[in-house]
């Protein structure tokens, strides 16, 4: 394709995405043009009337076609911003979401006024792309164990650990939830973002971008989305040290289920007395905080 400027390319992409029913058509078209051209948005604004090369135009329109098929922008460009940091992503890992930023904000806020929270080992449970472990390692200046069952996800996490120069602070471990750890591996802080979507929702109720492209292994939490959470709660007495804290992200409709599960599995046993449900900025139940008495 010859004789087309960046402004015209952008307009063409926005039109195609809008006609396909993509809601954020302008934002998506802009990000894809930045990736195809290798230029920042500021550069594209300044040089909008400059002619794009045929290679750039072809690459851009290929990206647009992929987005029309509902492939997420993050997977098309191969990275996504989280905590104002760039992270590699691909269909082997979930795309970072705002809910997980709220989880981390909650952890760091509590750490600032709860003495001794990070005096011992720290676990990033169900680490996926490694975003939680990377942020914790940077913010707390502590060593982290990051665990996931998926070898493919751990490869992505390893790339992100290297990207942020944290190889000496983050140890990646493959395993199924808390099973790799015996009573000799106790943590002062566990931060978890497990699969918590019900298997029925995974099959029938997710957006095409999610159900077609994001890894079901990282989404499907079984019946009601609570099966893996149940297993995690059952293992906490073995791995959360006295005086330790556990934070976990869950679905907005799972607050009552989480309370009931805590009462059934943990409350009143071995120092587990307190559960707090925290609401996100939309007022929805989003994070559970469990502390263990000394």
TrEMBL record:
The keyword Methyltransferase applies. S-adenosyl-L-methionine binds at residues 148, 193. Residues 100-215 form the Methyltransferase small domain. One of its GO terms (biological process) is methylation. It catalyses: L-glutaminyl-[peptide chain release factor] + S-adenosyl-L-methionine = N(5)-methyl-L-glutaminyl-[peptide chain release factor] + S-adenosyl-L-homocysteine + H(+). Pfam families: MTS, PrmC_N. SUPFAM superfamilies: S-adenosyl-L-methionine-dependent methyltransferases (SSF53335). One of its GO terms (molecular function) is nucleic acid binding. It comes from the Bacteria. Its EC number is 2.1.1.297. Residues 8-78 form the Release factor glutamine methyltransferase N-terminal domain. InterPro entries: DNA_methylase_N6_adenine_CS (IPR002052), HemK-like (IPR004556), N5-glutamine_MTase (IPR050320), PrmC_N (IPR040758), RF_methyltr_PrmC (IPR019874), SAM-dependent_MTases_sf (IPR029063), Small_mtfrase_dom (IPR007848). Substrate binds at residues 193-196. Keywords: Methyltransferase, S-adenosyl-L-methionine, Transferase. Methylates the class 1 translation termination release factors RF1/PrfA and RF2/PrfB on the glutamine residue of the universally conserved GGQ motif. Belongs to the protein N5-glutamine methyltransferase family. PrmC subfamily. This is Release factor glutamine methyltransferase. The gene is prmC.
């Amino acid at each position: 394709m010859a004789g087309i400027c960046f402004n015209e390319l952008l307009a063409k992409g926005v039109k195609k995405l809008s006609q396909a029913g993509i809601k954020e058509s302008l934002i998506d078209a802009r990000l894809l043009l930045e990736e195809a051209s290798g230029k920042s948005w500021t550069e594209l604004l300044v040089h909008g009337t400059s002619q794009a090369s045929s290679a750039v135009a072809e690459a851009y329109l290929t990206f647009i076609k992929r987005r029309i098929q509902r492939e997420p922008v993050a997977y098309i460009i191969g990275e996504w911003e989280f905590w104002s940091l760039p992270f590699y992503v691909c269909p082997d890992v979930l795309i970072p979401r705002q809910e997980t930023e709220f989880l981390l904000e909650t952890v760091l806020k509590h750490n600032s006024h709860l003495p001794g929270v990070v005096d011992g080992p720290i676990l990033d449970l169900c680490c996926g792309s490694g975003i939680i472990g990377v942020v914790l390692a940077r913010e707390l200046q502590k060593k982290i164990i990051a665990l996931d069952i998926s070898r493919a996800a751990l490869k992505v996490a390893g790339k992100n650990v290297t990207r942020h120069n944290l190889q000496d602070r983050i140890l990646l471990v493959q395993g199924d939830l808390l099973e790799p750890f015996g009573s000799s591996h106790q943590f002062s802080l566990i931060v978890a973002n497990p699969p918590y979507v019900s298997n029925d929702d995974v099959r029938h109720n997710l957006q095409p971008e999610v159900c077609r492209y994001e890894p079901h292994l990282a989404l499907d939490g079984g019946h009601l989305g609570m099966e893996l959470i149940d297993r995690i709660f059952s293992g906490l007495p073995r791995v959360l040290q006295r005086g330790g804290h556990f934070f976990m992200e869950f679905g907005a409709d799972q607050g009552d289920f989480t309370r009931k599960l805590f009462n059934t599995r943990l409350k009143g046993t071995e120092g587990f007395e307190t559960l707090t449900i925290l609401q996100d900025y939309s007022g929805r139940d989003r994070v559970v905080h469990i502390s263990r008495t000394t």
